[in-house]
Amino acid sequence: MTAFGTPGFRIRTKWARPSSAQLSGFESTASSQVADSMGRLGAMDSGIRPIWASPRVIGSALTVWCHSGDNLMVHKAIGMAQRGDILIVNTQNNVTNSPFGELLATSALAMGIAAVIVDGTVRDGSSLERLRLPVYARALCPNGCNRDGAGEVGTTIACGGVAVQPGDVIVADGDGITVVPLDDAADVARRAVNKLKQEEKRLEEIRCGVVTRPEIDEHLRRMKVIE
Q1: Are 105 and 133 in contact (CB under 8 A)?
Q2: What local confidence, expressed as pLDDT, does residue 216 receive?
Q3: pTM assigned to the model
Q4: What DSSP line would sit under the chain, residue for residue?
Q5: Could you give the CA distance from residue 150 to residue 86 in angstroms, rounded to a whole number?
Q6: Tell me, what's the pLDDT at 215?
């Protein structure tokens, strides 16, 4: 990676991004199926929710680490974005200052950003819905931010209890957000598709009257709960 600045106040400008083929491997699968395919790891915690009933999105992580109450690096990251990126923001657990709102959303759309995920709050909720930009956050709060720094762009961050590296695959839908390490993308996509097929098969079994799976009772017998 090419980096400018010093630790804690630094911008990285180059990293590997997923190919269109790698992203398309997740087109048919939900965030839950993707998380299940990684041992039920990789899903952000339930506090980060869609601000409006936005469509499902898949994209490449563009990571931002902000100083608490500051969004200088959010501004910088938006200007660096490539079409289809998903902006991922760590706010140092700040839930009283919103680093993102209508003005930045308008800029993000102009740069082709596919979605924004903030481990913190955002503002201008009705405008975000009107703009049709998928935004995930912990809550809404009207307070804005300073633009002084410090912070980093393009570094590994924590978001929703999950490590996110720039270029990781992000799958976000109504259930929440799952992060797939770029190196694992092809394998996880294959496993998620297999998981989808298994669930479709099970749904058909239920429709045909097999409401309880036989292995449930088998497991209970092994545990000596039933005979």
Answers
A1: yes
A2: 87
A3: 0.92
A4: --EEEETTEEEE-------HHHHHTTTT--HHHHHHTTTT-SBPPTT-EESS-PPPEEEEEEEEEEPTTB-HHHHHHHHH--TTEEEEEE-TT--SS-S--HHHHHHHHHTT--EEEEESEE--HHHHHHHT--EEESEE-----B----EEESS-EEETTEEE-TT-EEEEETTEEEEE-GGGHHHHHHHHHHHHHHHHHHHHHHHTT--S-HHHHHHHHHTTS--
A5: 21
A6: 85
| Strand duo 169-173 + 57-66: pairing | antiparallel
- The values of phi and psi at residue 205, to 5°, are -60, -40
Give 97-149 pLDDT, tens digit per residue.
Answer: 999 999 999 999 999 999 999 999 999 999 999 999 999 999 999 999 999 98
Residues of the chain with pLDDT under 50: none
Cβ atoms within 10 Å, residue 129: 16
